[in-house]
Amino acid sequence: xxxxxxxxxxxxxxxxxxxxxxxxxxxxxxxxxxxxxxxxxxxxxxxxxxxxxxxxxxxxxxxxxxxxxxxxxxxxxxxxxxxxxxxxxxxxxxxxxxxxxxxxxxxxxxxxxxxxxxxxxxxxxxxxxxxxxxxxxxxxxxxxxxxxxxxxxxxxxxxxxxxxxxxxxxxxxxxxxxxxxxxxxxxxxxxxxxxxxxxxxxxxxxxxxxxxxxxxxxxxxxxxxxxxxxxxxxxxxxxxxxxxxxxxxxxxxxxxxxxxxxxxxxxxxxxxxxxxxxxxxxxxxxxxxxxxxxxxxxxxxxxxxxxxxxxxxxxxxxxxxxxxxxxxxxxxxxxxxxxxxxxxxxxxxxxxxxxxxxxxxxxxxxxxxxxxxxxxxxxxxxxxxxxxxxx
Length: 391
Ligand SMILES: *Cc1c(COP(=O)(O)O)cnc(C)c1O
Prior knowledge:
The protein is α/β, with parallel strands linked by helices. The protein folds into two domains: 121 residues, Alpha-Beta Complex (Aspartate Aminotransferase, domain 1), CATH 3.90.1150; 233 residues, Type I PLP-dependent aspartate aminotransferase-like (Major domain) (Aspartate Aminotransferase, domain 2, 3-Layer(aba) Sandwich). 43% of the residues lie in helices and 17% in strands. The longest helix is centred in the C-terminal third of the chain and has 19 residues. The radius of gyration is 21 Å and the shape is globular. The structure holds pyridoxal-5'-phosphate. Pyridoxal-5'-phosphate binds next to helix 5.
């Protein structure tokens, strides 16, 4: 057998030759010691237009203070899984507050959204059950199909008609349908009303992963279900993450009493992993209160989104059809996205180039994200830099 490094190097060369090589930049700090809209990278301040801290809560003083206070009381690590000794008062209170936020009987915390999605789908879809997913679903929902052993079938993006055909043409005892609420790379909202109607008619269970909708979308920040007026009868399983609009870390699944009790018995990514640090749960409680009460953050975001879209369209840029903070400029080949990203970086604007396999072949892009803590001036700078880079 060939030596490990020689084999890996061969693959690495191929990745590099295809312009798909990934590297990391290191955040050195925050120049304004404040909002997080600007970060120091390579010794220079750069405006961050590619994070997921949509409401600007990750560095909020109240959220930080909650983390520190709880760390003084509970320490750092939770010390065990939830079912052993890791479930603290802070976790429990956060679960109750998350359930109240999304108006469902129960919520269950997970360490990451990736693990919550593995849990939801592998607990509900047994080996051989049909698992229908939108073609543009987040990787964690697709990976969950391998863990569950379900029969994965993918339907055309955001097409309830394609889902209907798929279910009509398939024999199944049990079918689970999973979709992003807000699609992570395009920013569009799933047609939940239509999908829920198909699921009702075809007797399938609908799972919505609203990682990018919760806190942001809907007048009260209840996410894509609020936006499309769907409740628990329509979408029995709701997955949310805490590392995006809520600015902290972790995830949850919300639904009925029976769903949550079933997950506690059966979800392997719940049972066999250490509980989140209690201080992170405490910080999330503070962030959730801010996301709930400070609706000016959502209004501010909407203003910035409108300003950005009208400015970008004036520049002749083609944007995806999105009213959310995710605004994508699709450029095509990976090299074009890399070059555009580098040109913006040289102008103090940080937007990572998103390439396959994160997005389909031929749709490499700049995935621009806005945050309530971006200033008007920063958005104008972004537009000016895009105008120069486009030339
Ligand atoms: C980020 C994301 C996840 C994963 O959540 P983590 O907490 O980062 O693991 C899941 N689903 C979608 C749609 C996401 O964008």
